[in-house]
TrEMBL record:
<dbReference type="InterPro" id="IPR002300">
    <property type="entry name" value="aa-tRNA-synth_Ia"/>
</dbReference>
<keyword id="KW-0436">Ligase</keyword>
<protein>
    <submittedName>
        <fullName>tRNA synthetase class I (I, L, M and V) family protein</fullName>
    </submittedName>
</protein>
<dbReference type="Pfam" id="PF00133">
    <property type="entry name" value="tRNA-synt_1"/>
</dbReference>
<dbReference type="InterPro" id="IPR050081">
    <property type="entry name" value="Ile-tRNA_ligase"/>
</dbReference>
<feature type="domain" description="Aminoacyl-tRNA synthetase class Ia">
    <location>
        <begin position="13"/>
        <end position="80"/>
    </location>
</feature>
<dbReference type="GO" id="GO:0005524">
    <property type="term" value="F:ATP binding"/>
</dbReference>
<dbReference type="GO" id="GO:0006428">
    <property type="term" value="P:isoleucyl-tRNA aminoacylation"/>
</dbReference>
<keyword id="KW-0067">ATP-binding</keyword>
<dbReference type="InterPro" id="IPR014729">
    <property type="entry name" value="Rossmann-like_a/b/a_fold"/>
</dbReference>
<keyword id="KW-0030">Aminoacyl-tRNA synthetase</keyword>
<keyword id="KW-0547">Nucleotide-binding</keyword>
<dbReference type="GO" id="GO:0005739">
    <property type="term" value="C:mitochondrion"/>
</dbReference>
<dbReference type="GO" id="GO:0032543">
    <property type="term" value="P:mitochondrial translation"/>
</dbReference>
<keyword id="KW-0648">Protein biosynthesis</keyword>
<dbReference type="GO" id="GO:0004822">
    <property type="term" value="F:isoleucine-tRNA ligase activity"/>
</dbReference>
Length: 129
């Protein structure tokens, strides 16, 4: 038995206390290189959301574009992110948002009111005591 063997993850029953394990890949730049501070190819989420000092070089995409990228990549393998990928996600987001706004605007008897959302939010909010 190794000195560094740790039996505690398996508990007293001799089996793992979890059903499955999810693994993920690396975040790569557009050229397929691993993100690294020393290479200077790191994408800062705050710059993606708010934009950089030079808006032409690092425009503001907003949090929704970053959320769309995160939800659309296959995290079980390596994922790529960079200016070109973010531009593509921005285009997809704009088309998706425009389509959904068009569909909602053409619903019969639909009014843009927040009372429906408030009702849902109240249903999931625990009562105050």
């Amino acid at each position: 038995m190794s000195l560094f063997y740790r039996p505690w993850p398996f508990g007293k029953k001799g089996k793992a206390p979890y059903v499955g394990v999810i693994t993920h890949g690396f975040v790569l730049d557009e050229r397929g290189l691993k993100m690294s501070k020393s290479l200077g190819n790191v994408v800062d989420p705050s710059i993606v959301i708010g934009g950089g000092k030079n808006q032409g070089e690092a425009p503001s995409y907003g949090a929704d574009v970053l959320r769309l990228w995160v939800s659309s990549v296959d995290y079980t393998g390596d994922v790529m992110i960079g200016p070109q990928v973010l531009r593509q996600m921005s285009d997809i987001y704009r088309k998706l948002r425009g389509t959904l706004r068009f569909l909602l605007a053409n619903l019969h008897d639909w009014e843009a009111c927040s009372c429906f959302l408030i009702t849902i939010a109240i249903g999931f909010t625990p009562p105050l005591r």
